[in-house]
Design goal:
Layout lengths: L4 E4 L1 H4 L13 H13 L4 E3 L7 H8 L8 E6 L7 H12 L4 E6 L3 H5 L3 H10 L3 E7 L3 H10 L5 E5 L10 H7 L3 E5 L22 H14 L3 H10 L6 E4 L4 H10 L3 H12 L6 H4 L7
Helix pairs in contact: 3-4, 9-12, 10-11, 10-12
The structure holds NADP nicotinamide-adenine-dinucleotide phosphate.
């Protein structure tokens, strides 16, 4: 059966994550994670041209894997390049003829490179990519696309027990036929940290992380199961993109994603963890 989890691969290309003690995955660990994900019915991988070696690492692993994954990659526009160049680069590194989706990694590029969207539509018509879309951080970015009537196929947005800013947009996106992928369900690993040991700039998250631990204890469930279950329970979410530091994390998340009853039991408490402060929700704003 197809899983609604998708595997994020920033950890394959760079050292990443606020709680990361292991560094970047080795090539053999990355291959083992991919094989296990395929066996578990995960059909979608998320990567980007901005994730160091991630695309190239995937290009070395994917040819031996069956069934074939859907690959979502992202680009960053730059003067002297075209969407076609950037897509060709991703395809060459990944060793594929087409992508499932190609997303703007930086929303500002949509505004700063006005001719690019039509060129991207041409690449889609030519079969180089099945879906076009945006990876964003702010609901207003999606709202402005919807208001302008820009046609797009897929979005990737942050969503977690803490960050529910996009929730009102999910039904609107589904009605418009847009595929919804959510990321950062563990807030880069912050959800697992000792609330008393957070960096000073994130200490304000301590009480909510502590409450999440207490809720998990009360429900007799791991924190990972509640974070995953919360995102998976939204029927508008097509894929929950998870980052892992190795096979152990993946195994825990596979078993955690299969415990929806824990989330239902803890739901009222989880709903109390919502946070509005973007200085705490958005990793690029974190003062560590
Ligand atoms: N702008 C964008 O488009 C964008 C931005 C960020 C991420 N992404 C994508 O989304 C994916 C997910 O990234 P994210 O940062 O949002 O990460 P996340 O999924 O919220 O957290 C991932 C981190 O949580 C920890 N973790 C995961 N499962 C665990 C478990 N069961 N037990 C304990 N720790 C666990 C691991 O770090 P430790 O073990 O080191 O704690 C892992 O690196 C990325 O791989 C990337 O593909 C996209």
């Amino acid at each position: 059966m197809t899983s609604r989890l998708a595997l994020g691969t920033v950890q394959f290309g760079v050292r990443y994550g606020i709680n990361n003690k292991k560094g970047r995955l080795s090539g053999s660990e990355a291959a083992a994670v991919i094989r296990r994900a395929a066996a578990a019915g995960i059909d979608t991988l998320d990567t980007s041209q901005a994730y160091g070696e991630s695309e190239a690492v995937l290009g070395g692993i994917l040819p031996g894997i069956s069934p074939a994954f859907r690959v979502v990659s992202k680009f960053i526009a730059a003067p002297g390049h075209t969407p076609g160049d950037l897509l060709s680069g991703s395809l060459a590194r990944l060793g594929r003829k087409s992508l499932y989706a190609f997303l703007y990694h930086r929303f500002s590029d949509f505004r700063d490179y006005p001719a690019w969207y039509d060129e991207l539509l041409g690449l889609k018509a030519g079969g180089g990519v099945e879906k076009l879309g945006f990876s964003v951080y702010y609901p207003e970015e999606i709202q402005s696309l919807l208001e302008k009537g820009v046609g797009f196929d897929l979005v990737q947005v942050p969503y977690s027990v803490f960050d529910r800013r996009f929730e009102p947009l999910f039904p609107v996106l589904k009605k418009a036929g847009v595929e919804v992928h959510v990321r950062s369900v563990f807030l880069q690993g912050l959800a697992f940290m000792d609330p008393s040991g957070l960096p000073p700039g994130l200490a304000a998250m301590g009480p909510k992380i502590g409450r999440l631990r207490t809720i998990a204890q009360k429900a007799g469930a791991p924190v990972s199961a509640l974070c995953l279950g919360f995102a998976l329970r939204d029927p508008h979410v097509d894929r929950v993109v998870i980052g892992v530091d190795g096979l152990d994390d993946l195994e825990n998340n596979l078993s955690g994603s299969a415990r929806p009853g824990d989330t239902e039991k803890a739901l009222q408490d989880l709903l109390g963890l919502s946070e509005k402060n973007e200085e705490l929700l958005l990793p690029f704003k974190w003062k560590k």
